[in-house]
Protein backbone atom coordinates (compact mmCIF):
# COMPACT_ATOMS: atom_id res chain seq x y z
CA UNK A 1 0.00 0.00 0.00
CA UNK A 2 2.87 2.35 0.78
CA UNK A 3 4.23 1.91 -2.74
CA UNK A 4 0.81 2.57 -4.30
CA UNK A 5 0.43 5.81 -2.35
CA UNK A 6 3.92 6.93 -3.34
CA UNK A 7 3.30 6.08 -7.00
CA UNK A 8 0.15 8.21 -6.98
CA UNK A 9 1.96 11.05 -5.19
CA UNK A 10 4.77 10.83 -7.74
CA UNK A 11 2.35 11.35 -10.62
CA UNK A 12 0.85 14.38 -8.91
CA UNK A 13 4.28 15.80 -8.09
CA UNK A 14 5.10 15.56 -11.79
CA UNK A 15 2.04 17.62 -12.69
CA UNK A 16 -0.03 14.65 -13.88
CA UNK A 17 -3.57 14.08 -12.61
CA UNK A 18 -4.56 10.55 -11.61
CA UNK A 19 -7.50 8.45 -10.46
CA UNK A 20 -7.44 6.17 -7.43
CA UNK A 21 -9.75 3.20 -8.09
CA UNK A 22 -10.97 1.32 -5.01
CA UNK A 23 -13.39 -1.56 -4.51
CA UNK A 24 -15.54 -0.36 -1.61
CA UNK A 25 -18.09 -3.21 -1.60
CA UNK A 26 -18.37 -6.67 -3.11
CA UNK A 27 -20.53 -9.75 -2.84
CA UNK A 28 -20.67 -13.14 -4.44
CA UNK A 29 -17.76 -14.41 -6.51
CA UNK A 30 -15.51 -11.57 -7.62
CA UNK A 31 -11.78 -11.45 -8.44
CA UNK A 32 -10.92 -9.10 -5.54
CA UNK A 33 -12.81 -7.87 -2.52
CA UNK A 34 -13.06 -4.61 -0.58
CA UNK A 35 -9.83 -2.66 -0.43
CA UNK A 36 -8.42 -3.72 -3.79
CA UNK A 37 -6.95 -0.64 -5.43
CA UNK A 38 -5.19 0.61 -8.51
CA UNK A 39 -3.88 3.95 -9.70
CA UNK A 40 -4.68 5.10 -13.22
CA UNK A 41 -2.80 7.88 -15.00
CA UNK A 42 -3.22 9.38 -18.45
CA UNK A 43 -1.58 6.34 -20.04
CA UNK A 44 -3.65 3.79 -18.12
CA UNK A 45 -3.02 1.69 -15.04
CA UNK A 46 0.16 2.65 -13.22
CA UNK A 47 0.16 0.23 -10.29
CA UNK A 48 -2.12 -1.93 -8.17
CA UNK A 49 -4.94 -4.17 -9.31
CA UNK A 50 -8.63 -4.74 -8.64
CA UNK A 51 -8.54 -8.28 -9.96
CA UNK A 52 -7.43 -8.20 -13.56
CA UNK A 53 -9.42 -9.41 -16.52
CA UNK A 54 -12.38 -7.69 -18.08
CA UNK A 55 -13.60 -6.13 -14.80
CA UNK A 56 -10.33 -4.31 -14.36
CA UNK A 57 -10.24 -3.32 -18.03
CA UNK A 58 -13.70 -1.76 -17.83
CA UNK A 59 -12.81 0.05 -14.61
CA UNK A 60 -9.61 1.34 -16.19
CA UNK A 61 -11.56 2.80 -19.11
CA UNK A 62 -13.99 4.44 -16.70
CA UNK A 63 -11.05 5.85 -14.71
CA UNK A 64 -9.63 7.38 -17.89
CA UNK A 65 -13.02 8.98 -18.50
CA UNK A 66 -13.07 10.32 -14.92
CA UNK A 67 -9.58 11.67 -15.54
CA UNK A 68 -10.64 13.51 -18.70
CA UNK A 69 -13.70 14.99 -16.99
CA UNK A 70 -11.99 15.70 -13.67
CA UNK A 71 -14.68 14.02 -11.57
CA UNK A 72 -15.01 11.47 -8.78
CA UNK A 73 -17.90 9.01 -8.66
CA UNK A 74 -19.11 5.51 -7.76
CA UNK A 75 -20.08 2.75 -10.15
CA UNK A 76 -21.53 -0.66 -9.36
CA UNK A 77 -20.92 -3.69 -11.52
CA UNK A 78 -23.89 -6.04 -11.04
CA UNK A 79 -22.74 -9.30 -12.48
CA UNK A 80 -25.92 -10.84 -13.86
CA UNK A 81 -25.84 -14.02 -15.91
CA UNK A 82 -25.07 -12.06 -19.07
CA UNK A 83 -22.49 -9.88 -17.30
CA UNK A 84 -20.73 -12.98 -16.01
CA UNK A 85 -20.22 -14.18 -19.56
CA UNK A 86 -19.30 -10.71 -20.82
CA UNK A 87 -16.79 -10.08 -18.02
CA UNK A 88 -15.21 -13.50 -18.13
CA UNK A 89 -16.35 -14.50 -14.64
CA UNK A 90 -16.99 -18.02 -13.45
CA UNK A 91 -20.05 -17.15 -11.41
CA UNK A 92 -22.03 -14.11 -10.34
CA UNK A 93 -21.40 -11.33 -7.89
CA UNK A 94 -21.37 -7.57 -7.58
CA UNK A 95 -18.65 -4.97 -7.16
CA UNK A 96 -18.96 -1.32 -6.15
CA UNK A 97 -16.03 0.81 -7.26
CA UNK A 98 -15.07 4.31 -6.16
CA UNK A 99 -13.20 6.46 -8.68
CA UNK A 100 -11.35 9.24 -6.82
CA UNK A 101 -10.03 11.95 -9.12
CA UNK A 102 -6.68 13.28 -7.87
CA UNK A 103 -5.76 16.68 -9.26
CA UNK A 104 -2.09 17.60 -9.30
CA UNK A 105 -2.98 21.09 -8.14
CA UNK A 106 -5.13 20.14 -5.14
CA UNK A 107 -2.48 19.15 -2.59
CA UNK A 108 -3.43 15.46 -2.55
CA UNK A 109 0.20 14.46 -3.09
CA UNK A 110 1.18 15.73 0.36
CA UNK A 111 -1.61 13.76 2.04
CA UNK A 112 -0.70 10.56 0.17
CA UNK A 113 2.97 10.93 1.09
CA UNK A 114 1.99 11.54 4.72
CA UNK A 115 -0.03 8.32 4.70
CA UNK A 116 2.88 6.38 3.20
CA UNK A 117 5.19 7.79 5.88
CA UNK A 118 2.85 6.63 8.64
CA UNK A 119 2.82 3.12 7.15
CA UNK A 120 6.62 3.20 6.90
CA UNK A 121 6.85 3.93 10.62
CA UNK A 122 5.15 0.62 11.39
CA UNK A 123 2.02 2.12 12.94
CA UNK A 124 -1.59 0.96 12.84
CA UNK A 125 -2.84 3.20 10.02
CA UNK A 126 -6.37 3.61 8.70
CA UNK A 127 -7.20 5.30 5.42
CA UNK A 128 -10.50 7.17 5.31
CA UNK A 129 -12.06 8.09 1.99
CA UNK A 130 -15.10 10.33 1.92
CA UNK A 131 -17.06 8.93 -1.00
CA UNK A 132 -19.55 11.78 -0.76
CA UNK A 133 -18.84 15.48 -1.28
CA UNK A 134 -15.82 15.12 -3.54
CA UNK A 135 -13.98 12.26 -1.88
CA UNK A 136 -11.64 13.79 0.71
CA UNK A 137 -8.83 11.38 1.66
CA UNK A 138 -7.35 11.19 5.14
CA UNK A 139 -5.44 8.90 7.47
CA UNK A 140 -5.65 8.11 11.16
CA UNK A 141 -3.23 6.72 13.74
CA UNK A 142 -3.59 6.65 17.50
CA UNK A 143 -0.21 8.35 17.76
CA UNK A 144 -0.81 11.23 15.32
CA UNK A 145 -4.59 11.49 15.16
CA UNK A 146 -6.24 12.51 11.87
CA UNK A 147 -4.19 13.62 8.87
CA UNK A 148 -5.64 15.10 5.70
CA UNK A 149 -9.17 15.59 7.01
CA UNK A 150 -10.86 17.07 10.04
CA UNK A 151 -11.39 15.00 13.16
CA UNK A 152 -13.96 12.23 12.67
CA UNK A 153 -14.05 10.85 16.20
CA UNK A 154 -17.38 9.14 15.51
CA UNK A 155 -15.51 6.89 13.06
CA UNK A 156 -13.07 5.58 15.67
CA UNK A 157 -15.21 2.59 16.76
CA UNK A 158 -15.26 1.39 13.15
CA UNK A 159 -11.50 1.31 12.69
CA UNK A 160 -10.88 -2.41 12.70
CA UNK A 161 -8.99 -4.95 10.59
CA UNK A 162 -11.75 -5.46 8.04
CA UNK A 163 -12.79 -2.53 5.83
CA UNK A 164 -16.15 -0.91 6.41
CA UNK A 165 -18.45 1.48 4.56
CA UNK A 166 -20.28 3.69 7.06
CA UNK A 167 -22.58 6.71 6.95
CA UNK A 168 -22.18 9.52 9.49
CA UNK A 169 -25.03 11.92 8.80
CA UNK A 170 -24.37 13.31 5.33
CA UNK A 171 -20.81 11.94 5.29
CA UNK A 172 -20.25 8.51 3.78
CA UNK A 173 -16.84 7.08 4.68
CA UNK A 174 -14.93 4.09 3.42
CA UNK A 175 -12.58 3.05 6.24
CA UNK A 176 -9.76 0.54 5.80
CA UNK A 177 -6.66 -0.39 7.76
CA UNK A 178 -3.72 0.05 5.40
CA UNK A 179 -0.81 -0.28 7.84
CA UNK A 180 -0.24 -2.63 10.75
CA UNK A 181 1.93 -2.16 13.79
CA UNK A 182 4.19 -4.90 14.97
CA UNK A 183 7.36 -6.20 13.36
CA UNK A 184 8.43 -9.60 12.11
CA UNK A 185 11.68 -10.38 13.90
CA UNK A 186 13.51 -12.98 11.83
CA UNK A 187 16.35 -14.65 13.71
CA UNK A 188 18.80 -15.89 11.10
CA UNK A 189 19.74 -14.45 7.73
CA UNK A 190 20.19 -17.66 5.75
CA UNK A 191 18.62 -18.90 2.53
CA UNK A 192 15.04 -19.17 3.83
CA UNK A 193 15.17 -15.71 5.41
CA UNK A 194 16.49 -14.26 2.15
CA UNK A 195 13.45 -15.69 0.34
CA UNK A 196 11.02 -14.78 3.14
CA UNK A 197 11.77 -11.09 3.63
CA UNK A 198 10.81 -9.91 0.11
CA UNK A 199 7.56 -11.90 0.23
CA UNK A 200 6.56 -10.50 3.62
CA UNK A 201 7.59 -6.97 2.64
CA UNK A 202 5.42 -7.20 -0.47
CA UNK A 203 2.36 -7.90 1.70
CA UNK A 204 3.13 -5.02 4.09
CA UNK A 205 4.95 -6.73 6.95
CA UNK A 206 7.88 -4.84 8.48
CA UNK A 207 10.79 -7.27 8.73
CA UNK A 208 13.78 -6.97 11.06
CA UNK A 209 16.54 -9.49 10.35
CA UNK A 210 18.80 -10.48 13.25
CA UNK A 211 22.11 -12.29 12.79
CA UNK A 212 25.43 -12.70 14.59
CA UNK A 213 27.31 -12.89 11.27
CA UNK A 214 27.72 -9.44 9.67
CA UNK A 215 28.12 -10.95 6.21
CA UNK A 216 24.47 -12.10 6.45
CA UNK A 217 23.14 -8.63 7.21
CA UNK A 218 24.06 -6.82 4.01
CA UNK A 219 21.62 -4.53 2.22
CA UNK A 220 22.27 -6.56 -0.92
CA UNK A 221 20.79 -9.63 0.80
CA UNK A 222 17.81 -7.82 2.36
CA UNK A 223 17.01 -4.71 0.30
CA UNK A 224 13.35 -4.69 1.42
CA UNK A 225 13.95 -5.31 5.14
CA UNK A 226 12.85 -2.58 7.53
CA UNK A 227 16.10 -3.07 9.40
CA UNK A 228 18.95 -5.53 9.94
CA UNK A 229 20.72 -5.88 13.30
CA UNK A 230 23.65 -7.83 14.64
CA UNK A 231 22.61 -9.85 17.68
CA UNK A 232 23.98 -12.27 20.24
CA UNK A 233 21.64 -15.25 19.97
CA UNK A 234 22.35 -16.11 23.60
CA UNK A 235 21.33 -12.64 24.82
CA UNK A 236 18.79 -11.31 22.32
CA UNK A 237 17.19 -8.72 24.59
CA UNK A 238 20.25 -6.53 24.40
CA UNK A 239 19.11 -5.91 20.83
CA UNK A 240 15.37 -6.68 20.68
CA UNK A 241 12.33 -5.53 22.62
CA UNK A 242 9.19 -7.53 21.84
CA UNK A 243 5.57 -6.47 22.27
CA UNK A 244 2.21 -8.18 21.90
CA UNK A 245 1.91 -7.09 18.25
CA UNK A 246 5.21 -8.61 17.10
CA UNK A 247 5.91 -11.82 15.20
CA UNK A 248 8.96 -13.99 15.87
CA UNK A 249 10.41 -16.29 13.22
CA UNK A 250 13.31 -18.48 14.34
CA UNK A 251 15.50 -19.91 11.57
CA UNK A 252 19.14 -19.58 12.65
CA UNK A 253 21.99 -21.65 11.22
CA UNK A 254 21.85 -24.34 13.91
CA UNK A 255 19.60 -26.14 16.34
CA UNK A 256 21.57 -24.83 19.30
CA UNK A 257 20.94 -21.21 18.36
CA UNK A 258 17.30 -21.95 17.53
CA UNK A 259 16.92 -23.43 21.01
CA UNK A 260 18.60 -20.44 22.67
CA UNK A 261 16.37 -17.94 20.89
CA UNK A 262 13.19 -19.94 21.48
CA UNK A 263 13.94 -20.28 25.21
CA UNK A 264 14.27 -16.50 25.53
CA UNK A 265 11.28 -15.40 23.45
CA UNK A 266 8.94 -17.76 25.31
CA UNK A 267 9.30 -15.44 28.29
CA UNK A 268 8.32 -12.37 26.29
CA UNK A 269 5.08 -11.17 24.68
CA UNK A 270 4.64 -11.87 20.98
CA UNK A 271 1.66 -12.41 18.74
CA UNK A 272 3.28 -15.33 16.94
CA UNK A 273 6.34 -17.52 17.52
CA UNK A 274 7.36 -19.87 14.72
CA UNK A 275 10.41 -22.12 14.70
CA UNK A 276 11.78 -23.90 11.65
CA UNK A 277 12.61 -27.59 11.90
CA UNK A 278 11.32 -31.13 11.65
CA UNK A 279 8.96 -32.87 14.05
CA UNK A 280 11.92 -34.90 15.35
CA UNK A 281 13.94 -31.75 16.09
CA UNK A 282 10.89 -30.19 17.74
CA UNK A 283 10.46 -33.11 20.10
CA UNK A 284 14.13 -32.94 21.15
CA UNK A 285 14.08 -29.17 21.68
CA UNK A 286 10.82 -29.34 23.63
CA UNK A 287 12.35 -31.92 25.96
CA UNK A 288 15.25 -29.55 26.65
CA UNK A 289 12.93 -26.57 27.17
CA UNK A 290 10.77 -28.47 29.65
CA UNK A 291 13.90 -29.44 31.55
CA UNK A 292 14.82 -25.73 31.64
CA UNK A 293 11.54 -24.89 33.35
CA UNK A 294 9.48 -23.88 30.32
CA UNK A 295 5.88 -25.00 30.91
CA UNK A 296 3.74 -27.01 28.49
CA UNK A 297 1.41 -24.00 28.27
CA UNK A 298 4.30 -21.84 27.08
CA UNK A 299 5.25 -24.41 24.46
CA UNK A 300 1.74 -24.26 23.07
CA UNK A 301 2.54 -20.72 21.90
CA UNK A 302 5.09 -22.07 19.42
CA UNK A 303 4.25 -23.03 15.85
CA UNK A 304 6.71 -25.69 14.75
CA UNK A 305 7.32 -26.91 12.16
CA UNK A 306 6.76 -23.38 10.93
CA UNK A 307 4.46 -22.48 8.02
CA UNK A 308 1.36 -23.96 6.48
CA UNK A 309 1.50 -27.62 5.52
CA UNK A 310 1.94 -27.43 1.74
CA UNK A 311 4.79 -29.97 1.45
CA UNK A 312 7.28 -27.14 1.02
CA UNK A 313 10.87 -28.24 0.45
CA UNK A 314 12.94 -25.46 -1.13
CA UNK A 315 13.76 -22.21 0.69
CA UNK A 316 11.38 -20.33 -1.62
CA UNK A 317 8.56 -22.80 -0.97
CA UNK A 318 9.13 -22.65 2.79
CA UNK A 319 9.04 -18.85 2.59
CA UNK A 320 5.66 -18.98 0.85
CA UNK A 321 4.27 -21.32 3.52
CA UNK A 322 5.51 -19.07 6.35
CA UNK A 323 4.21 -15.90 4.71
CA UNK A 324 0.81 -17.50 4.20
CA UNK A 325 0.68 -18.47 7.87
CA UNK A 326 1.56 -14.95 9.02
CA UNK A 327 -1.11 -13.49 6.74
CA UNK A 328 -3.64 -15.83 8.35
CA UNK A 329 -2.51 -14.85 11.85
CA UNK A 330 -2.67 -11.15 10.99
CA UNK A 331 -6.21 -11.62 9.67
CA UNK A 332 -7.20 -13.41 12.87
CA UNK A 333 -7.87 -16.72 11.16
> What would you call the structural class?
alpha/beta
What is the name of the CATH architecture of the largest domain? 3-Layer(aba) Sandwich
**CATH class type of the largest domain:** Alpha Beta
**How much beta, percentage-wise?**
25-35%
Low-pLDDT residue spans: none
Q: Work out the helix count.
A: 9
The best one-word shape is: elongated
**Biggest sheet record:** 6 strands, parallel
User: Ends: how far apart?
Assistant: 22 Å
CATH topology of the largest domain: Rossmann fold
Q: On the 0-100 scale, what is the average pLDDT?
A: 90
Question: What's the count of strands?
Answer: 16
The side-by-side strand order for the widest beta sheet comes to 13-12-11-14-15-16
What does this structure look like?
With 333 residues, the protein is α/β, with parallel strands linked by helices. It folds into 3 domains: 2-102, no CATH class; 111-179, no CATH class; 183-330, NAD(P)-binding Rossmann-like Domain (Rossmann fold). Helices cover 32% and strands 28% of the residues. The strands form 3 sheets. A 6-stranded parallel sheet has the order 13-12-11-14-15-16, sandwiched between helices. A 5-stranded antiparallel sheet has the order 3-2-1-5-4, sandwiched between helices. Strands 8-7-6-10-9 form a 5-stranded antiparallel sheet, covered by helices on one side. The radius of gyration is 23 Å and the shape is elongated.
Helix-strand blueprint:
Elements lengths: L1 H12 L4 E11 L8 E5 L2 E6 L3 H17 L3 E7 L1 H7 L5 E10 L5 H13 L4 E6 L6 E5 L3 E3 L16 E5 L2 E9 L3 E5 L3 H12 L3 E6 L15 E4 L16 E4 L4 H11 L6 E4 L3 H13 L4 H4 L2 E2 L11 H16 L3
Parallel strand pairs: 11-12, 11-14, 12-13, 14-15, 15-16
Antiparallel strand pairs: 1-2, 1-5, 2-3, 4-5, 6-7, 6-10, 7-8, 9-10
Helix pairs in contact: 1-4, 5-9
Amino acid sequence: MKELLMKAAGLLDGGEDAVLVTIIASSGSTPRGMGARMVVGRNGRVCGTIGGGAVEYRAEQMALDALRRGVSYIHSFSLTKNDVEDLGMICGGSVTVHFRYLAASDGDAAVLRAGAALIERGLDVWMLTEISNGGTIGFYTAEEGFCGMGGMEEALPFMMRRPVLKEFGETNLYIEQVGSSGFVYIFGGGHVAQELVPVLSHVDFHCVVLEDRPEFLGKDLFPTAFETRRVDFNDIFKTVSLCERDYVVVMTRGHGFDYAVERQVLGAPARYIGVIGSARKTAGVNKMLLADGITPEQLERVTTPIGLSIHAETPAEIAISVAAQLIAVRAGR
